[in-house]
From TrEMBL:
<comment type="similarity">
    <text>Belongs to the class-I pyridoxal-phosphate-dependent aminotransferase family.</text>
</comment>
<dbReference type="InterPro" id="IPR004839">
    <property type="entry name" value="Aminotransferase_I/II_large"/>
</dbReference>
<dbReference type="InterPro" id="IPR050859">
    <property type="entry name" value="Class-I_PLP-dep_aminotransf"/>
</dbReference>
<keyword id="KW-0032">Aminotransferase</keyword>
<keyword id="KW-0663">Pyridoxal phosphate</keyword>
<dbReference type="GO" id="GO:1901605">
    <property type="term" value="P:alpha-amino acid metabolic process"/>
</dbReference>
<dbReference type="InterPro" id="IPR015421">
    <property type="entry name" value="PyrdxlP-dep_Trfase_major"/>
</dbReference>
<dbReference type="GO" id="GO:0030170">
    <property type="term" value="F:pyridoxal phosphate binding"/>
</dbReference>
<dbReference type="Pfam" id="PF00155">
    <property type="entry name" value="Aminotran_1_2"/>
</dbReference>
<keyword id="KW-0808">Transferase</keyword>
<dbReference type="InterPro" id="IPR015424">
    <property type="entry name" value="PyrdxlP-dep_Trfase"/>
</dbReference>
<dbReference type="GO" id="GO:0008483">
    <property type="term" value="F:transaminase activity"/>
</dbReference>
<comment type="subunit">
    <text>Homodimer.</text>
</comment>
<dbReference type="InterPro" id="IPR015422">
    <property type="entry name" value="PyrdxlP-dep_Trfase_small"/>
</dbReference>
<protein>
    <submittedName>
        <fullName>2-aminoadipate transaminase</fullName>
    </submittedName>
</protein>
<feature type="domain" description="Aminotransferase class I/classII large">
    <location>
        <begin position="53"/>
        <end position="379"/>
    </location>
</feature>
Amino acid sequence: MKSWQFATRAAAMSPSIIREILKVTEQPDIISFAGGLPSPDSFPIEAFSAAYEKVMREHPRSALQYAASEGYAPLREWVAQSLPWDVSPDQVLITTGSQQGLDLVGKVLIDEGSRVVVQTPSYLGALQAFSAYEPEIFSVPNDDQGVQLESLEREQLRYQARFIYLLSNFQNPTGMTLSLHRRQEIAKTCHALGLPIVEDNPYGELWFDAPPPPPVASFYPEQSIYLGSFSKVLAPGMRLGFAVVPPEVYPKMLQAKQAADLHSPSLNQRLAYEVLTQPGFLEAHLERIRALYKGQCQAMLAALQRHMPDGVSWNTPKGGMFLWLRLPAGLDSAAMLPLAVQQGVAYVPGAAFYDTQPDMRTMRLSFVTATPDEIDRGIALLAQTIEQQLAA
Ligand SMILES: Cc1ncc(COP(=O)(O)O)c(C=O)c1O
């Protein structure tokens, strides 16, 4: 009997290492810093219940019907108005999570062998989405302010990439944020090089003390696709995000979306709109999430300070969900993971987020899913594991 014959693109797909790790860490006795799940305490459950009743009372038939592929018009208008630069609702495409935005970008802009620039390390889900379209990915390193401009210029002049994929705020995985100056410099450099930008910003609203600078796309809107998400602000189970797309690219993104899913769920779009526009809701809700995550981040920073041996370093994120830790020389976070899980704590080895030349000493720690008590215990277990490795 003839067996299935996979397309070359399917052969290029690989399982997400994070999802594989998550399977192991779902056991209840493990304190997991591995997942990137928002805290369920942040979900606006009552606001959703009220919105559901309202939508079912006022618009049940249209909420349950097929709808426009572009998205629910009032939600598109809301998105356009919420952004800090001049965006027309016609440029807004509602997507099934920003993950779909990444896939549509790949579908529309990448041919086999097309070059794409990414920061390194970068979001694994984007590498996964793009790789299905078989690009040649090349990475530019970050310094402490973000993408290194000289390597970007050098590499782009050599490789003529189709776009650069950028994470501007509280980056997944490193928690890092691009400075205002670097954003302006990136926009200027991309303009000079004729290099379009795909900016992914699902975490921008989750700042602790001060909002981050405006998106890179706001300094170069004509050649930027900007992706946003409702997952971290409302709830990921809604599977709603958006793309702001220049008029030249919009029709192609729309056609790609039509082929993928016709449109994002009408009911969820109406619910999101109702929740977002409940008077006074959003500001109070965001303040609550910011305070919750800031407290958890501070608990992790304090625990690291308390427990970690010399030679371990980490950054201090200004928002978001992740912190980036680096082990002392000679240690390898991927090799250490089984021992850490045995001790009762899990993380994602940094190597998962590099396309090439991983820094094996790094790891991503999420501070939002565990409680402050669990964070302290988990970090103590991690420190113990590191000490054992150093002594071995
Ligand atoms: C950087 C980044 N982009 C996109 C996504 C996808 O988010 P969603 O599809 O839930 O909007 C995530 C999810 O964790 C992410 O970290």
